[in-house]
Predict the 3D structure of the following.
Amino acid sequence: MDADINNRPGGPNLVVTCKTANTIQFFDAATLALTATLAMPGSTHELIQGTDGNTVYGSIYGGGIFGKNKDPDRRIAVLDLASQALVRTIDAGGTYAPHSVMMDRDGVLWVSAELGGAVLAIEPDAGNVTRIDIRGAAHWIAVSHSADKVFASFKTSNTVVAIDRASRSVAGTLAIPHGAEGIAVTPDGETLFVCAHRRGVVHEFDARTHALRATHDIAGAPGEANQLRRVRVSPDGRHVCVSSHVDSFAAVYEAATMKQVAGFATPKAPMGFGFAADGRHGFLCCHDAAQLVEFDLASGRITRQAATDAGCEFVIAY
């Protein structure tokens, strides 16, 4: 299976965004002990490692939440993992409330420009920013290298947009039943998963043809309430993990069959997933509870928890 630059195998350390506290925190993955706290210049939501593995880019979203932006920001933070330091920021070129961040294999940083109705392609070293008009408020993005596409989901409509990575232009749209939320691509780039907004389901699409292959229930979380749901595929491609924010619930699927193998209650408001180096455990940020949870991928059993600063949203194991 091809390596997914946006979901690397885990390592001995964790880095976590704590957006309400305007901090980023570092933990020892073996003990879940806090090792450092870094003050950020604004509310930082999502992180992605650069091509060198040591540089991390973080979206400085600004205040508020989707649709209720207070003092939206325009910056991307550039972090050095070795020194656990903020090196600089990149100006995205507009007050966009940047949110989702992904890398491509050429070192281009892809960013959702929520308030600009666009996705941005940023060359981090040169600072060049290309704005791609997608005519909607994209919150999440995902990259498929095998299909050579970037996908962006609209929280406010039943749509995911496909962008041609090479030409940086819109290549098509996918109709999403029940609204679009979190999205993820498998490590081989062939499958796109899209969580629904208005039902407890996750949709499975062919990343090349955009055909809907199947819709999978989230057993244990029917989720009739509109809510944020997120999905992530493990680096080895064996597991698909889905979180339901309002339901305080997470599910694990066997990727090969999409059989749900686990479902478990979480601390309040689960959001982003990360994966341990052993391939057997996942991490989950529980935003409202300010808790980082470690869980067993085979059973969904919570094995450990650690307190974080307020508003933990996203975690990377490195």
In short: The chain has one domain: 13-317. Residues 64 and 207 are 32 Å apart (CA to CA).
